Amino acid sequence: KTKHKDLKLHDIFHDLALYIGGKEYGHASATEHTCHLSLLGIDDAEHKYNASGTANKVRTLLCDPDSDSKSDLHSVYIAHLTNFKWSRVLSLRGYRMYELPKSIEDLSLLKYLHLSYSNVKRLPSSIGKLCNLQILDLSVSKIEELPKEIGELSNLRYLGLKDIEELKFITEGLGKLTNLRILYRFIVSDGKENTRGCNIRELKDLNKLKGELLIECLGGGRVKVIDAKNAQLKEKHELIGVKFYFEEQEDDRVGNASEERSLLEALEPPYGIERLGIYSYKGDRDGIWIPIMGRCRHYSCSVAHCWQQ
Question: What are the Disease resistance R13L4/SHOC-2-like LRR domain coordinates in residue numbering (predicted)?
């Protein structure tokens, strides 16, 4: 019989990663050979400063926040951001920064930018220079609006906008992201005060969308029926769930039942949809629920806060 010793599984994976990565992997320290640098769990801002200054060939940089966020932010992500021009992956998850520097454009090879749970409120217009970016995760951040330059990210596949309470406005241009697979949230603009936000027809060419899609601010006369038809939701065959929110904003006019019924008919979901939600809807249900629910493959529709006028 042999004696068995307890061994944590993550230690095995850690040692395996070190063995495979060799000189290309670094944790808290970097050399001229380092391609993948992790600063996770490192609380010393000066240590991060030295590591980031050395690693000018880094392809992957993983970071997390610490208690001294101000000094860490300036030393690593502003003073040394241009050092990471070879980076493909940059994770700033949870950082307490309020905006990204314009120099983010120097990371032209970047494919993955992770800003979820951060305090970022706005993105610089230079974000549009990241022509190779495929994943931009802003979930659970403090982002307030998306700049029109987002539309220049022609290779973007994933735009994480889940659970962002502060996000109220998306500028026009989203319709140019024809490679987009995951969007999750689309906010219709009212077009007031010289703002050029997203018209619902910008969904027309986004036929690669997958998963679930929430369409907000449909009430208050914001959306024309012809624009809703041009969105061609029924052509998004890889969507498995759609939610329509007809809530009205403070400055919107009061919508009427006839308008909202016509609008809902125009927003015909794709065949085989599995989940359907319709909220704050004022139109009548006669003759419209059967064909829509008939397209729910498992009839797992969720209808809440709907009423018949």
Answer: 78-217
223 within a domain of the structure (yes/no)? yes
Q: How open is the CA angle 6-62-178, to the nearest 5 degrees? A: 120
| Count: domains in the chain | 1
Residue position matching structure tokens 């906008």: 161
**The dihedral of CA 187, 188, 192, 196: what is its sign?**
positive
Provide the strand spans (E) within 173-261.
Answer: 184-187, 211-216, 239-245
Provide CB contacts within 8 A for 107, sequence distance 6+.
Answer: 81, 84, 85, 87, 90, 130
Is 193 within a domain? yes
Helices within the chain (DSSP H only): 9-21, 45-54, 69-72, 225-230, 257-266, 289-293
Region of 13 on the Ramachandran plot (φ > 0 left; ψ -120 to 50 alpha; else beta): alpha
Q: Per-residue pLDDT tens, the chain, 309 aa: give them.
A: 455 555 555 667 767 766 666 666 666 666 677 777 777 766 655 555 555 555 567 888 887 665 444 445 444 555 567 778 888 999 888 877 788 888 889 999 999 999 999 899 999 999 999 999 999 999 999 999 898 999 999 999 999 999 998 998 888 899 999 999 999 999 998 655 545 678 999 999 999 999 999 999 888 788 889 999 999 999 999 999 999 998 766 555 555 778 888 888 899 888 878 888 888 887 766 666 555 566 665 544 445 555 443
Closest by CA to 123, choosing from 138, 140, 139, is: 138
Helix (H, G, I), strand (E, B), or coil: what is residue 65? coil
How many CB atoms within 10 Å of residue 298?
10
The 8-class DSSP code of residue 77 comes to I
Within a domain: residue 238? yes
Domain that holds residue 302: 168-309
Distance (Å, whole) CA 58 – CA 48: 14
Query: What does the angle CA 160 – CA 225 – CA 252 come to, to the nearest 5 degrees?
Result: 70
Instruction: Report if residue 255 sits inside a domain.
Output: yes
Task: Give the amino acid at 116.
Answer: S
